[in-house]
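Shipment paperwork, digital attachment
Item: protein structure file
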Amino acid sequence: MSVYAMLHKEYALPKFSFRLLVMALLLVLLPNVAFLSAAYFTNTARPLLNLDYFWAALLFVLPWRFAKFTGLLLFWLAALFDTLMMVMQLFPFMDLLGAIYLAPFIMKAPFLYQALTVFLLGYLFLIPMFLGKIAGKTNIYHVLYVCVPLFVAAYFTGHLQYHHRSNVAILFGGNNFYYAKSQYALYRENQDFDFLKAADNEPVLLEESRERASLRLSKPTAKKILFIVNESWGQPKNSKLQDAVLEKIYAEKSLFSQVETGYFRAIGATVEGELRELCGFGGARGFSFRRTPAEKFSKCMPNILQKQGYKTIALHGASGQLYDRYAWYPKAGFNKIQTAEYMMGKPTCEAFGGVCDRVLYDEVKQGFRQNDKLFFYWLTLSTHADYSEKDLYNQRLKCEDFQLPSDTLLCRNFRLQAQFFDGLAALLKQPEMKGAEVIVVGDHSPPVINIGEVFKYLEEGDVAWLHLKVKE
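Attachment content:
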């Protein structure tokens, strides 16, 4: 057809069909409905409409294979960032790089992590099949009839919110109750993508953390130090619940010359909690610590104490491969490392298939028996989310007595914490522990699948700490 003919041809809009419009509307809204339902059950924030799915919908209805394949890729990308914006609220230390790094460990991860992964993979493969069938029952024109008005409305209302949560939940997308917004754009507002360019290169260690429990160690330094970074130990709003968790410790107060407790804000992955306490770093961007030069760890506490004649021991029930602990622990100054690889045959628990904390008290006692000048570091494991009932053998703590429902994940967390501190109280009565200075501090606040539990029962984003000195 000549240009003249094209310019003089009469064009008409395609015939409007209510049925095709309904199919187009379903094509655009179905992914949003699925994620809004998940947000409702987890009490997380999400825009009513994620604009990222509109581009996938427009491509799904085009008749070309390349367009449909591109639409599938855009759908997967949109779903990825939709998922991340939800996960970052439930697990504030998680981001895209963290998810990529932890992916190889998923088969050993706790059940909660595995279940979420299976659900996401099922969603990514099944939903596009439904969308493909729906796309075949409408056309590009009717999808445009839906998308264009919604895009225009989003342009004028994208800054408005249908709900506002005025607390720390503003962090990590926790207050993203927009009418219509791109989840990808919201992720960019919360996270810096630059570090992804060097995801497997040397991590960036952030400036000094001003608040950390290790600053409370005595000066001059005690000859025997037990330093514990306690997995997922947070601070409940009901302080009496924390008192109940520490009940067995308080019951032995005659053994101690000093006992103090408190809490402070600390958000980050477990390894960032370790780096905060052992080395003073305020966090990390990237987790390939095997690539970090040894000099970056020169000011870490174990290195300093080792030069002063201390034996330095690190104990952790999981594999040393996780977060490259096999590589950075020696660089930080530990001259003996006990991870799962070196404790074959010991009973294992649910969290990452690691050695149970309940059998490691003897390892601690042996370390203090054999060394007169010792820095013993223990990263606990059994209190890791999803707080497995199978690892709980101590039923002492009754959550209902402190207005915490027994069917919540936080109840399981605090019961596991009570179990740990009961074991620690028994350990500190042993003669080998005389004269030891002890610090226990949380790595991060306990994550749960329903963030509503956090808002209701926890001091959000805070970790608890305990500092005591065993009498000579």
